[in-house]
Amino acid sequence: MSFSKTRLIAVLTQPRVDEMRSAMDAAAAAGADLAECRLDFLSEQLDRPALHRLLARRPLPVIVTCRPVRQGGRFAGPEDRRLELLATAAELGADYMDIEDDVPAGRRPKGKLILSHHDFTGRPADLENIWDRLAGSDAAVAKMAFAAAGPEDAVDACRLLHQAHRPAIALAMGPAGLPSRILARKFGAFGTYASVQAGGESAPGQLTIAQMKQLYRWDAIGPATAVYGVIGCPVAHSMSPAIHNAAFDAAGIDALYLPLRVEPGGENFDRFITALRAAPWMDLRGLSVTIPHKQNALSAVGPENVDELARRIGAINTILIEPDGALRGWNTDYAAAIDALCNALGIARDGLAGRAVAIVGAGGVARAVVAALSHYGAAVTIYNRTVARGERLAREFAAKASGLDALAELDAEIVINCTSVGMHPNTDQSPVPAQALRRVKLVFDTVYNPIETRLLREAAAAGCRTVTGVDMFVNQAAAQFEIWTGQQAPRELMRRVVLQHLGNRP
């Protein structure tokens, strides 16, 4: 099936007929191709006149669904009554009826049927048998939806579409299954589902029409679209999809960037990478990696396929997937931080040699920054709540370490906060006493939400130059874009997207 035929289906879950009909008008205005009327969500008494009000002079073709509780719906009444409602809708001209595969063929309503199977507990062990049964039926559309444990299940749903020889819908539900909803267009699905507005979802993981159209560039997706994504947990609120999709659009690159929720643990990361390697038809070209998988990413790529400093850091945040499936890795975090710092100081990287730098924190961000500063010859002191952890990091990179109480006697030219202290919503906190900043020349806060943290406000009041976490965030994203595409990143656009996402105007 041509990708241009893939329908964006607006799910309508309002409790009253008139409200559902108004939502159908809104869906048409928003650019939906079909509307799915979920009769099982209606709380008022349904009869033929009510269904006529819903379906008469409708602005969109309509799928009518009355999902029973046994397959994740809300209809708990008699089965005869449920099937009667669907048959009446068919008589009144509904374009499609979605009917569950456990309804005997002789009891199914007449008309164009979407024969569906839903499993909200996980990927069915007999998925292939169920799919063969659906695909082999005489229904107009075969539909499979199951809960995803990880994005490898989204890959599995895409595989069903990739191999389908008939109109089909295959979706992995939940946050980890989100890619299957968006990539449905790439693989020629009959359709995929979206809500008219947030809160109107009929199944976990549904996006809004606006998100599909704007954030994920639905209308630009085609069979040749390259796929990129960010692996993390949590990942739903990552700004990376907005930044990279805007950058691909500005550069005229046929590519899409998605959130990929992988639960913590190396085994979960490896399971997803294995699924990707078995599915070259996914056209996955590159990955961003965030908490908690940066060390798992290095292990998957292999130390021999990253640069020396990334090996010393012990973590990567960027993966390039070569045409032959080989993986290469980078850590763009350290370069992003160092370049933001050097730009503010007006120096090259080797100008950091001998400068006294105080690092607050000893976690993953601190590790990358300390490794880079040490590499370029800075004199680093790590201040951390758990002194022993700071000392372990310091020993690795020829630095010094101390407890947070020693910040009161701070003697450094540069201070870099690598903790989450001051991050939204705890914006009234600062990791460094204000009085300790009087002898400091520059303060860099890797926190980017809010853009101006309390630490940066107090640093500016003390006469220090300041560097925001936005600078680091944009730098690392731009470096990833350039690694993947070989093109210069549209940095100003990327920065503007970040600021708009955070509620600030440039």
Q: How is the topology of this model organized?
A:
Elements lengths: L6 E6 L4 H14 L3 E5 L9 H8 L6 E4 L13 H13 L4 E5 L12 E7 L7 H9 L5 E7 L3 H13 L4 E6 L4 H5 L8 E5 L11 E2 H7 L10 E7 L7 H12 L3 E7 L4 H12 L6 E6 L4 H8 L6 H6 L4 E4 L5 E4 L1 H14 L10 E5 L3 H12 L3 E6 L2 H10 L3 E4 L10 E4 L24 E4 L8 H8 L3 E3 L1 H17 L5 H11 L5
Parallel strand pairs: 1-2, 1-8, 2-3, 3-4, 4-5, 5-6, 6-7, 8-9, 10-11, 10-12, 15-16, 15-18, 16-17, 18-19, 19-20
Antiparallel strand pairs: 12-13, 13-14
Helix pairs in contact: 1-2, 5-9, 8-17, 12-13, 12-16, 16-17
Give the second-level CATH assignment, the architecture of the largest domain. Alpha-Beta Barrel
Widest sheet, order of strands: 7-6-5-4-3-2-1-8-9
* Beta-strand share of residues: 15-25%
Largest sheet: 9 strands, parallel
Number of strands: 20
Helix and strand composition category:
alpha/beta
CATH topology of the largest domain: TIM Barrel
Rg for CA atoms: 27 Å
Average pLDDT score = 95
